[in-house]
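User: Predict the complex.
Assistant: Input components as received:
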Amino acid sequence: MSKFEILKKEEFVPNFYKLDIAVPGIAKKAKAGQFILVMVDKQSEKIPLTILDWDEEKGTISFIVQELGLSTSKMAFMEEGDSFYSIVGPLGEPAYLENFGTVVLGGGCYGVGAVFPIAKGLKALGNYVITIIEAKNENLLYYEEEYKTVSDEVILVTTDGSKGERGHIYDVLDNMIEVQKRKIDHIKVIGCNVMMSKVSKLTKEKGAIPTYATVTTIMVDGTGMCGSCRLSYDGKTKFACVDGPEFDAHKIDWDELIHVRNTSYITEETLGLQNFSPECRSLAKYQERTKEEEAS
Amino acid sequence: MKSKERMQIPFTDMPTQPPQVRAKNFREVPYGYSEEMAIQEANRCLNCKKPKCVEGCPVRVPIPEFISLVQEGKFLEAAWKIKERNVLPAVCGRVCPQETQCEAQCIRGKKGRSVGIGNLERFVADYERLSGHIPEPIRVSKNGKKVAIVGSGPSGLTTAGDLILQGYEVTVYEAFHLGGGVLVYGIPEFRLPKSVVQFEIQNLENAGVKFVYDSVIGRIRGIDELFTEDGYDAVYVGVGAGLPVFMNIPGENLQGVYSANEYLTRSNLMKAYLYPEYNTPLLTGKNVVVVGGGNVAMDSARTALRLDADNVYIVYRRSREQMPARLEEVHHAEEEGIQFRLLSNPVEIMGDEKGRIESIRCQRYELGEPDKSGRARPVPIEGDYFVLNSDLIIIAIGNKANPLITMTTPDLEVNKWGNIVTDELGRTSKPFVYAGGDIVTGAATVISAMGAGRRAAMAIHEDLFPTTEVKTEGFTIPKETLEIKHAAIYPKTVYLRLNLINSSEKELDQVKIRISHVHDFFETTMFETTIPRWSPGEEHEFDCPRIDKNEKEYLITINDLHGKIMSKIIVAEEVKR
Ligand SMILES: Cc1cc2nc3c(=O)[nH]c(=O)nc-3n(C[C@H](O)[C@H](O)[C@H](O)COP(=O)(O)OP(=O)(O)OC[C@H]3O[C@@H](n4cnc5c(N)ncnc54)[C@H](O)[C@@H]3O)c2cc1C
Ligand code: SF4
């Protein structure tokens, strides 16, 4: 197996791919909540991806990508046997795990997969784990069976109500707190910043239940060198890549994070995607094309 | 040629791309000297008996010697001469602040322009590279010890280069996918072509240095694991000062505010200037404001200009003379049309309802009383503000120590700024862990980072292959080769008497004795001499004047053809008559 090689690729729901990659060094060190920075090829940008699972013996790690921007589209075209240009990790501080008692985990969009290692870790520490996963509709829900192995309860929510409950993670949480009056000791959420900010607002109002959020920011180096991932936290500037990515949700300046820091590249990214023509259905073709262009 | 004739030759300017043209491309600004120009410039050197320039160079490049070789047209030999002391001359010739180092000391600078030492260094290094006459790397037999270098900046590369020549197995771990540190992620192509850096790294690889990219030490492996799991005998930490400082003013997290590190990394390392061929996006601006007055600020401003800005402003708190940037860079920036707003400091960044910046408000300053460093202190003028409309702001006010390594290695002592604490030769508080470069000194220069790398290589060798030592008058010396019969620091001189008691009864060739003082990590040579042949039993004495009477620490370094025999620090108080 060569460096950063894709050993297995699965598209388990449309546009969501799970990749198993050979990186023994990272497989040995990874902890729940950490991420990697990936470059598909020499021309790619670096994008952060949460480590979903790892197997120290086989020397592999897995992550899930959703085909969204240019880099993730390139990944979608990669096949088993192809290799990434660069993978750096494990980065970030591991998630804060201990025996809290009853823990609610909320995963939306990419977080549907990303909370998995956290659930696994918390379960192993003896917590009562309730996992809520949210998607637009039933076609985008995945990992249900896997979650059952590491959670005491799994709750599914879809925006259109096509599977599980209808609504959002915070509706389920609100119901658990207000109606069912359940005692919750700790909450962790991973997903888009809007979802996490809403959960944060809710739990702050409902008696400040300890809530931790894994933020998604733009990153370049992942070692604290560029400050691209900075956010305002408790009145101070923090770097998601070295201080996080998990933070106490109640101390994050969500407005700034959502409206200011994360929308910087919308136009540029769209441009990048246009440039990446959909005819090249495989990475090999894509690389061939770049080679040709380089030669000419 | 007589000195008088030499004095008459005018300074040879290096031809450059015209400002209007280069402001729109990323090609290197100066074209370099032709052979004729190099010889002409070299002929301005008076070949001083006591060359001051060498004292100004932190790694003691044998300047008059290499320049003499240029005078004779022996360019390759000149390059090799420099490489005895400086492994990255093509880089240093381009980026050293010569005006405060070697060229500042040049005697010709007293009246008119000093010899263009940097230009000549660059010329011979380029000549060597382009000629293809690269000497085969010296294959030395392995000494059985393994050293890990963390960080592939100039400091780590120098340590790696020195150690591989002494037979160590050397592996460099680098967080990025390319080597070179600031040389590749910070300094732009138009100032230091990346092919130059790549070439130097290739040379190290050819010599046997292993590079492991994509590896963040502290995450994928801790310092301790480098010893326990990977079996390294020593670790050198040269991770640079990569933690951008922000101003902590309102609006700093708005869209369109970059740290210079991020801006330059996106542009240089990730090649955003070739977007969309390369995929990393970079916001461009029509009215760009860069805050700061160092090289980093100049590089950011000139990059922004090349990425189609109409107006680029540099806002700096102090005056032009106080700018820490290299003179040449300030000059090039001015020529290209960068607008300087000196004695000004931002107080607030204003944005629109979408969170994008619109303008920046600055306060005017004036120069007041000198501060501790002797520089006139800038003081804000009450109520005097101005506003610059801006769609891109780059903060280049400095870098602090990146805490990743020290956070994950608690037994590594740091000072209150987070810089690793070391002794003169780079030894940290942790046994067999050494550090140097920006992580120790705070953001400094390429050449000082290289100097630190070299001293650490000495320390590593000394510690891994200790010589049997005896105590003589307060300091220790190796027993087998050279014995210090007497050493003393007198009010006016430093005295040294050495005897060769080499047990193998072999005579030593070309023994170089250097006495230097060490101050703030800089080593300044006071005295250097070469004994062509030294037979066993023979004694030599050296008496060298003390330049600065307050200097209490002296470093004695003795080399023969085969490398260093010893280097020892002697301290004035400890040595009695
Ligand atoms: C834009 C800019 C322009 C400059 N211009 C000049 C100039 O003209 N002249 C001059 O003399 N100086 C200049 N400097 C300063 C000079 O570049 C630095 O002083 C010098 O590079 C420091 O060298 P270093 O080896 O200590 O660190 P660096 O060059 O910073 O290299 C450190 C390396 O370590 C890597 N690293 C960090 N953490 C880890 C980790 N945990 N594990 C593995 N690797 C890690 C980094 O990725 C990096 O590659 C400039 C600096 C900048 C930013
Ligand atoms: S290395 Fe730098 S300081 Fe030393 S001689 Fe060369 S240019 Fe001057």
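The longest helix of chain A spans residues 193-205.
Let me know if you want any component modeled separately.
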